[in-house]
Specification:
This protein is α+β, with helices and mostly antiparallel strands.
Length: 404
């Protein structure tokens, strides 16, 4: 009697784990290279780069071998969904001894050779794997055999490994997108058992951005639906799901589905979420016009923070020595909102424009204080400020009142 019979799901999970490990190996090699490459700025850089990739060949070859093993597990899983006994090869006379009189684990039996998996699968499948896949599978298997059985192995580069992996994932693990597989596996990784902070979105966004850099534009469009010729934006869903405590720069991996003016539904290639956005100009010194939940998806500037509102009247600490404090009611953004203007009139006009902006329509008043020396502490500024005046919103109109 045969015992411990594997299920199709177990083969699938094993294959997906191997593919995930191959991805992690490839990403680590690339990330290490990019971190080092940023530090090297001399004539020896190209030579050092070539030497790095030469020394990275064992890791990339290992990743490639894991891709082939993952595909083999997935194919076995598909065959097992018809019947796991189809995986047993050889004649009964070559089966383990005593199988007809005692329990024998399935693992004791010799299973189908990798070369026969597609043929057996297609014999029983309603939807057989096509000729393109068969050609791809044979090529991967052939290159993997070179790694195992030959000293003169094929040279691998990041694009080859990543493209091979994505092709395998699309063909055999395509129930959901590869980025979604990564999010699921990263969230359920080894650190999850300790309840540590979840950085899964941070990690996967960075990895997909790396993959895009190494693939061709045609590859990116095919595997991710990402068009390098179009503008990209930070996905609000990924941003809110990610750990934002330490990360400063964010990959822009969300795009509008169509190349038309005024689109307001943004699609992310990582989380596969569609987000409704507003198409209005960012208040900060930024060309962006895609806003979600009062956050600019280009510069991440908070649109409801008076400190971020820019106009032609605002200066900077090096350009103007006149410092002004804007006190908003109800409280919004920073309690001080310290800004530089050339004079009172510039500060007054800037504040008027800010209150007319949609993001500040909830302000009932903004009071302007002047303090000439920007180098003092906030406590000193508060104690020695000169009141310039206040903008009030009365019956939908702005009214200015100066100090009498």
């Amino acid at each position: 009697m045969i015992t411990e019979i594997p299920t199709a799901s177990e083969f699938q999970i094993a294959g997906l784990n191997q593919l995930y490990l191959a991805w992690q190996i490839a990403m680590k090699v690339v990330q290490d290279y990019e971190e080092i490459d940023e530090l090297i700025e001399n004539v020896e850089q190209k030579k050092a780069s070539a030497e790095y990739w030469a020394k990275a060949q064992p890791a990339l070859a290992n990743a490639f071998g894991l891709i082939q093993q993952a595909m083999e597990m997935a194919l076995k899983g598909r065959i097992a969904s018809f019947s796991p006994f189809l995986l047993i090869s050889r004649d009964p006379k070559d089966w383990p001894k005593g199988v007809d009189t005692a329990p024998v684990p399935f693992s004791e039996f010799r299973t189908l050779d990798a070369a026969d998996l597609v043929k057996v699968h297609n014999t029983f499948a309603v939807r057989p794997l096509d000729a393109d896949f068969q050609t791809f599978w044979e090529g991967v298997r052939r290159d993997r055999n070179k790694i195992i059985h030959s000293l003169a192995v094929k040279s691998f580069d990041p694009r080859t490994v990543v493209k091979t992996l994505l092709t395998a994932a699309r063909a055999l693990f395509g129930d959901i997108s590869w980025p979604q597989h990564l999010l699921n596996m990263e969230a359920d990784g080894k650190y999850a058992a300790y309840g540590l902070d979840d950085y899964s979105y941070n990690v996967i966004m960075q990895q997909i951005e790396i993959a895009i850099r190494y693939l061709t534009p045609a590859d990116n469009k095919f595997f991710f639906g990402y068009d390098g010729k179009r503008r990209s934006y930070i996905c609000p869903n990924c941003y809110y799901e990610a750990n934002r405590n330490y990360q400063e720069t964010w990959p822009a991996l969300a795009q509008f589905p169509l190349k038309r003016q005024g689109q307001d539904i943004l699609h992310c290639i990582v989380c596969n979420v569609n987000s409704n956005v507003e198409r209005i100009k960012c208040i900060d010194n930024c060309p962006g016009d895609v806003i979600h939940d009062d956050i600019c998806l280009v510069c991440l500037s908070a649109q409801d923070n008076p400190q971020n509102f820019h106009s032609e009247f605002i200066g900077n600490r090096s350009g103007y020595e006149h410092l002004y404090r804007l006190v908003c009611s109800p409280h919004q953004g920073s309690s001080y909102n310290l800004l530089n203007f050339l004079n009172d009139e510039k500060a007054k006009e800037h504040t008027r424009l800010m209150m007319l902006n949609k993001h500040f329509s909830g302000l009932s008043s903004v009071t302007i204080y002047y303090k000439p020396n920007a180098l003092r502490t906030l406590e000193e500024i508060a104690a020695n400020s000169r009141l310039v005046g206040t903008w009030f919103r009365i019956n939908g109109q702005l009214v200015w009142r100066e100090v009498e």
